[in-house]
Write a structure and sequence with these properties.
alpha+beta, D-Maltodextrin-Binding Protein, domain 2, Dipeptide-binding Protein, domain 3, seven-stranded mixed beta sheet, four-stranded mixed beta sheet, about 30% helix, about 25% strand
Length: about 600
Amino acid sequence: MKAKRMTILLGLLVMAGMVLSACGQEVVTVTVIEGGEVIVVTATPTVYDPVTLNLNLGTEPPTVDPALSTDTTSVDLVANLFMGLTRFDPVTGAVIPWLAETWEVSDDGTIYTFHLRTDIPWVQYNTGTGEVDLVTVDGATRYVNAYDVEYGTKRTIDPVTASDYSYVLYIIKNAQAVNSGEEGFTLDDIGVTALDATTVQFELESPAGFFPAIAGMWIANPTPEWVITAAGENWIEPGTMATNGPLVMTEWVHGSEMTLIVNPHWPGAGDIQIERYELLMIQEASTAFALYENNELDSTGVPLPEMDRVKADPVLSAEYVNYADVCTYYYGFTNNKPPMDDVRVRKAFSMSVDKVSLVENVLKGGQIPAGHFAPPGIFGTPAIGSVGLDYDPTAAAALLQEYLDEMGITIEDFNAMDVTLMHNTSEGHAMIAAAIQQMWLENLGVEVRVENQEWGVYLTTIQNDTPLADMPHVWRLGWCADYPDENNWVHEVFNADAGANRLRRGCVDEVCAEVVTSRFDDLTAQAGVEADPATRIELYFEAEQILSEIEAAYIPIYFYAGNSVAKPWLTRDFPLLGGNNFFEWEIDWDAKTAATR
């Protein structure tokens, strides 16, 4: 009789009613009438629960377009969605093969030739079926080739793309001339050429031993020309975007959340243990930390107000990780906006910041007070303490007073200038800004107004082509290594002629269309082409000294130290260089399920 009843049950499942049990699981109830007997059968259907990582991005990513990404959030996502020619080993930081299997360099160090893998397909997420489809051309799978690399690199350099990171590729022959719109140069003149489907060659302006790291950066990633041409700026939306990396984006609710899944067609898909990645965009670190404590996030940063409690708590302290991080936190001055156009004012503001007190009493996470830009671990960086303006409020006040006297104004007049300090929205940045705001008030008598903006808006605001009237006088930013060489720091970030130059050093107009270079700019340019390592170190030392002491163009505040917590069921790394490779993390799913169900 039991077997017969189960047969009837299976036949009636399509008529079954769904209800929720007390624990929130779906159950199926079926009423069967057999020989006048009413039988109610209840069963819980088997539902496959994918291994899922829950993480907070901390903000809405401005983009996932490799050519347009400049911030760590966007770069993390690009690193999981696309493959570059090379990547960094997450443990050693060494450059290792990725899309390129091998490469060689010419005897004079100016030509690099990369040989690509042939097994990396382009894929697209199908929003209708929920499947990841292979991109096909004439019925054949479309694999990534050298022409995609050439297109992606030239697209970043193309001034029409308006990439804020194009200057990193100026080491490539004619890249700066093309990107700057120099007459007589076209995209065809850029020194990157696909020799055939599996071979791409780069010709450089000068020898650069660090170029294999640049070649692997997101701005040189292969990108799908056919999708970009057809969809324009919307090509990065799920269902439209074609990617080639370990993960695929299935959902992007802007300002709220994003979902990634494993790309089943990626050659290493079988080695990826986490199947689903649910990423939130919560800006408040305290909210994210509360979710972590409630087992709704697997890892997160430690908010500044929670640092003491985390270290003292027996559970949280066991989950706490303090790790090295090759990043620098700094305040930039808008160098051509009064009163920051006077070096005495910049020095006064810089010398009034007690970085030791900030690190010990506000941050409390192992950060190191900074006197220069590049942190330890970067080739060419000065020894800690050898460069930089010391905290000296007396001397700072005297410098400001000298400026006031020369201008014939009082401190009240100065404060009427409405000096503004801006940071992107973050509880941590707000605490640091409040502390420094108070230091300026106590040490200089200066009243500074603090403002904040959402991350994507903020990045646009502090570009060097924003009208000067819309620029804050002082603004915060962090810089993390793209590759471990000073060229990536003082030259690519602050050089007036060939770098991002958000500081607007040497600008002769409001939007820095023209600049006047200085000794600093000449030094960083010379160091980039110098072959002798010892000479390069000397050049970079002088450049760092000029930037922080003589020009006082910015305030280096501290060298980062990572402070995070991670659940015991999560195995993750904290790479020094490159983006976070979520696809290499692992979760003990049984342990997570037991703790969260």
